[in-house]
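hey team, just a heads up i'm posting the complex here instead of the shared drive bc the drive is being weird again. everything in one block, sequence lines first with there labels, then the predicted structure for the whole assembly after. its two chains so it's a bit long, scroll down
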Amino acid sequence: MTAAGNTAYLQIEHLWKAFGEFHALKDISLDIKEGEFICFLGPSGCGKTTLLRAVAGLDLQTRGVVRQGGRDISTLPPSKRDYGIVFQSYALFPNLTIERNIAFGLENTKRPRVEIDARVKELLALVGLPDQAKKYPAQLSGGQQQRIALARAIATSPGLLLLDEPLSALDAKVRVHLRHEIKGLQRKLGVTTIMVTHDQEEALSLADRIVVMNHGVIEQVGSPTEIYRHPRTLFVADFIGETNKFDATVAAASVSFGAKAFRCAPHSFANGDAVVAAIRPEDIIPHGPGSRSPGAPDVVKSPENLIDVTVGEMEFLGSFWRTRLRGGELGDEELIADFSVNATRRLGLAEGGALTVELPADRLLVFPQGERHGGGH
Amino acid sequence: MAAATDILMPSGRALRQSLDKDELIKRGLLVVISLYLVLSLAAPLYVMLSKSFSTYSFDLAAFEFQVSDKLGNFGEPATAAALNEKLAAVPPEKLATSSDGRLPATSFFPDFSFRSPVKYKIRGTTDDASFLIGTQLHHGTEWQEVDSNTFRRIMLRPARALGLENYTTYFSTPTLFRSIQNSFLIALISTIFTVGIAFGFAYALNRSKMRFKGLFRLVAMAPILVPSLLPGIALIYLFGNQGMLKSLLGGISIYGPLGIVIGSIFFTFPHALIIISTALAISDQRQYEAAASLRASKWRTFWVVTIPGARYGLISAAFVVFTLVITDFGLPKVIGGQFNVLAVDIYKQVIGQQNFEMGAVVSVILLIPAIAAFFVDRLVQRKQVSLLSARSVPYEPKPNRRFDLVCLAYCSLVALFIAGIIGICQYAALVKFWPYDLSLSLKNFAFGRMDGGGWASYYNSITLSLLTAVLGTVIVFVGAYMVEKTEGFRTGRTAFHFLAMLPMAVPGLVLGLAYIFFFNNPANPLHAIYGTMAILVVCTVTHFYTVGHLTALTALKQIDREFEPVAASLKQPFYRLFTRVTVPICLPAILDISIYLFVNAMTTVSAVVFIYTTHTALASVAVLNMDDAGDTAPAAAMGMMIFYTNAFARILHVAVSKGILKRTQAWRAR
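-- predicted structure starts here --
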């Protein structure tokens, strides 16, 4: 989106990967533009790492074509491809100093020593560890080691940078910090980057585009906001962020669950279809009691989607209150809503109190029922 | 999106990666080393197996003769079978023979005279029939005409057939058959004693706070440094016909089962100790704390916690000891007396009676328990691994004065036994003439005056050991690397791994005999290495291949699997990663492999006893031969030379390891 050009730098066409009868990748097609930062996101076993390893030539796909910069690299061995890679384990050579690790790909290429040394210095500065050159990997912290691994991977200025869960082995604070550095580095270098992760927060904050995968297929490709705001499948809605789900039936522009028909986002279902209605907790808007009466303030966007509920357990999560809502037109269903601390204070919310909430129609999404991509089993 | 699940994968062949130079070199190396193991192990064993099923007999119907009168007019042809029927010249039982059998053609002509002007013709009735005229081998149905002087030099050659006859003969020969019983009995008794004694020793080392643990560990490992027949020599000095403690045995002869068992305990002790000690060392402190909190008595804790925890170690040790004893040849040869065992039978059949087929039969029989033990051991080893979880807390013994003293006394006793055996040999090597002149001299070290190859054999041993250590380590490590660190080519790697595990199950004597069959065949292009130092190196490397292979694998498995992908993505050839990263990291293991190969090459007798020649005589074989010739004192002296050399090599190894590690393993320190 931001730094991306227009040409597809990496093209993946109809990729399959079979392990015996099991298909780890099913007909994957994807175009990645030059300079883009792409995240493969999904639960473990979804095929994201398999896809990365196919791009790297480490585990060859069973069928399909991969093109990089217009060149067909489908069956090339790793050494004939053009990428740098960083693994979760860092894979630093323990018996070589930091500078020798970084220089590993530069040596043996007829480059003069002076040039190599200068490049190593430059890279060390780039990753913010200029004075660690003479140390051994075991003498550095995990975060520092991962930065060295990154420096080694980009030392030869590859056209593509592959990151295989690079932050998973680090603790939470370091992870967030390094996340920023990786993003900054990628922006500065403009190198096309693919990162595999199972951490949605990581994907949302880093990626230009996220590729959400499940059971060997791509569920959705899109920018972080697209993925979050407009999930195309229930899996995406469910996997990224929190979501309320209700078994429901649709009519032309409405969906019924609990004891009420709500107006919902546009969909293509037939009247009476059994569906799942979904809405994120933070999309639920609290209104003071009496908001449903005629002449209520026009901040209510979907007056027909207002319901009166009882406030159940409230859980304080720092920046917001996770609140369980029951009763009224919800019938037997339970709705989880996240209310800001401000709104909670303003409306004087307390467990057991009464409340009117709005389920904005454009945020109430409808998905087919029983949608589980069980193709693999 | 959901629609994707309905699409079927297009049919056709799976994509294959194009191979780069790296991959080609790797596969090439794997093929070369596989070929090495095929030629040095699989092929010889196969030839030996087929030899054990080969029987040879003269097929008289396959030869036809014609005899002329004095003027040279030939009469009617007659087969040797027909002639024999008339004359009964060769009784049927004489028709069975060995692969070297020869039957003079004149046997069928009682009135043959080499001066007579009568001429003879001979031919085979089949294409396979063969006979010698002088040294020239002839095949086929072409008539060969010779005068009577040449006719006496015609020898019929036997035909080869496949069958179980050798085995039937073996099992119907009581003296041979009894060896099976003897071997099993000896191995069983030695196993019980060794495992018992080693368990006590290991228990004291791991579970007490006694003093001198380091010294005890050192002494306990000493038997590895000497040939297995050395304790035999020491026992002869102590309890033999002229032994100083002979009276202690009260008339029981040391020559026989008693001597073999005591000697076997000596040389198998360190092997058992290493395994059991490892098993005891990995037990979990928390289990003992749990037992104590449940108020279990010490005795009950021992049987419920200690023994089950060490059971895999005990089983494994038992099988290792059993295999070592049943396949050992040097010790029963030296001290076995009239007590026959399988390993000595092979030697006697081959060296004594030149009956190679029967030697092969005994070898195959000896292979059975060794292979069985090998598979049980692998099974047990696999289970052992999962026993220790990463969260186990190592057991830390608490001081207990009485228990520590008992342990000290016990270990001292065992150490005294080991040091005593070596001490006796040392003493025997230095005295002038046992037991009459006990003054000291070095005359027993003047090997030049004895049978066995003299000092040259010692230098040959050094050469062999160095070559084995260097070349063997390279082959073993590179082979293990190819198995562990290559992608793809799975079938090739699995086959190679199997070949690499096989030598563990093949007794040295069997391997040596297989080498005779395989390499001493003039039709084999590798025949050239027969009788050279090269074949000794090949044999020794192969014989001790497995332990080195496993050591290398263990070290390689600890290295990050992602190094190869990273190096490939950096466009670096694998050999650069190999030399700059893999080898330096594995240096401790590489040094361990080389010292292991060196020490074993110095002490091995069984693997090389069939294939050494006069100019490649070895020190360990010289000990055997000098003892055989009655030069027991020089034999002890040569045994001690081996001990000094190995002890020196061990010390050097420790020093060099420390030096190199300090320089190259700085990265290990944090």
